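ok here's HVA22-like protein:
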Amino acid sequence: MGVIGAIARHSNAFIGPGIMLLYPLYASMRAIESPSTLDDQQWLTYWVLYSFITLFELSFYKILVWLPFWPLLKLTFCMWLVLPIFNGAAYIYENYARKYVKFAVSQYGSDYPEGQKKVLQMMGLDARKSVEKYIDKYGAQAFERVVQAAEKEAKRH
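and the structure:
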């Protein structure tokens, strides 16, 4: 188990740069080019959190060097932040950071009524992108009709 054990012990050196830097870099560039601002939230939050992790590592390096599980813990956390199935960075923003950051203009655009903003906030990132495209294409009134129809359907079941 020498080679396999060595690969397992140093997997963060192989996988880490791809997950923590290359994929987020690629996804950030795609987010810049996309017309939606919703994916920007995921990647801006990721880079802020990654910066905090890096500052934490630099500040506590002498302690972290003695913790053999730190690289795996960091890799696992960054995977949760990055992977589209989890969208951890967007989750942290929605559930923690947003409470402390006040914007003059709402995250979802000032042209959406309050009820629609609440619906958008409850959705995942991919769903929000789809709804935003739907509203841009068909208008806010069409989206409101869809929400009302869904509410009626939910009451029947």
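+1. Residues 110-156 form one domain.
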